[in-house]
Amino acid sequence: MRVLGIDPGLTRCGVGVVEGVPGRPGKLIGYYVVHSEPDEDIALRLLHLDKSLGELVAEHQPDSVAVERVFSQHNVRTVMGTAQASAVAILAGSRAGLPVQTYTPSEVKAAVTGSGTAGKAQVTSMVTRLLGLDAPPRPADAADALALAICHIWRGGTRARIQAAAVAAASARRGGPRR
Amino acid sequence: MRVLGIDPGLTRCGVGVVEGVPGRPGKLIGYYVVHSEPDEDIALRLLHLDKSLGELVAEHQPDSVAVERVFSQHNVRTVMGTAQASAVAILAGSRAGLPVQTYTPSEVKAAVTGSGTAGKAQVTSMVTRLLGLDAPPRPADAADALALAICHIWRGGTRARIQAAAVAAASARRGGPRR
């Protein structure tokens, strides 16, 4: 099972691709950070992110996509951009007909470290170990995206397969706007 | 000049298409509301909105797209969905190579009523009058989307043309992810 994990952000969006099966150490396929400048036009930033994620999905042909769920306890201005980036991330999967699953930050932390309140350093350290890497992935956005992919592989299964069927059906449908 | 206005929302997304020139009453081309159910999977909701807006852009071939800018003073849970919907709305324009402009609610209200603090009923009433309609457009999401399109026509011009050039250049560029 190959999973593309996305840690959404407008300025830095982390992407991690991992192959594996539940309960076994995974294999790193690649990781990326898609950048855009905060002072750039929002339409151009979203378009760049959309094209970049679309290209990475086409290149890696994952079986599913895992996206971090956005919460609102952060800085309000940042959260709006993160919510917009998360929509682009989710669409990158669903437009390609792939099942998309969202996970909260604590679900991801718990999956890779055993604790939902683990710090960034601990997550990075476990990702490095679980994927058998010589050095920690940098920057941290990439490590978080890899942790998401690992989380999805370990927890994936029934939920993902049910949703895959629904997405495939929705993609196939002609789906005109309901007026 | 034909403008497609979008009042973003996940549950109800208003779309209004108006043709006109600055300072003259515009002509209504059509209006729509794209629905999705709050209990549906987020990936399916975003996909439905994406497909619907893409189809409306293809059908109406607007010269530009105007999207309401999302603010965070509202209910926090709603705002996340609205921010996600706004990203889909902006992409519907920029993916089609169209210039996209965002306007705050008060800019839209000021453009159609003369007051940035006008109520919904006043906006609907002015939209009905400015477009020469026999009855007010319903629901209110559609009236807001039409107000956005009118606002853009009246204020459009230089800014939109500059951005059109930038979007066209970005769409033409190969634009691989910056790794």
TrEMBL record, chains A, B:
It is found in: Cytoplasm. GO terms for biological process: DNA recombination; DNA repair. Keywords: Cytoplasm, DNA damage, DNA recombination, DNA repair, DNA-binding, Endonuclease, Hydrolase, Magnesium, Metal-binding, Nuclease. The active site is at D7, E68, D141. It is an enzyme of class 3 (hydrolase). Its cofactor is Mg(2+). GO terms for cellular component: cytoplasm; Holliday junction resolvase complex. Mg(2+) 1 binds at D7, D141. Binds 2 Mg(2+) ion per subunit. Its EC number is 3.1.21.10. Mg(2+) 2 binds at E68. It catalyses: Endonucleolytic cleavage at a junction such as a reciprocal single-stranded crossover between two homologous DNA duplexes (Holliday junction). CDD domains: RuvC. GO terms for molecular function: crossover junction DNA endonuclease activity; DNA binding; magnesium ion binding. It comes from the Bacteria. Homodimer which binds Holliday junction (HJ) DNA. The HJ becomes 2-fold symmetrical on binding to RuvC with unstacked arms; it has a different conformation from HJ DNA in complex with RuvA. In the full resolvosome a probable DNA-RuvA(4)-RuvB(12)-RuvC(2) complex forms which resolves the HJ. Belongs to the RuvC family. The RuvA-RuvB-RuvC complex processes Holliday junction (HJ) DNA during genetic recombination and DNA repair. Endonuclease that resolves HJ intermediates. Cleaves cruciform DNA by making single-stranded nicks across the HJ at symmetrical positions within the homologous arms, yielding a 5'-phosphate and a 3'-hydroxyl group; requires a central core of homology in the junction. The consensus cleavage sequence is 5'-(A/T)TT(C/G)-3'. Cleavage occurs on the 3'-side of the TT dinucleotide at the point of strand exchange. This is Crossover junction endodeoxyribonuclease RuvC. It comes from Actinoplanes auranticolor. The gene is ruvC.
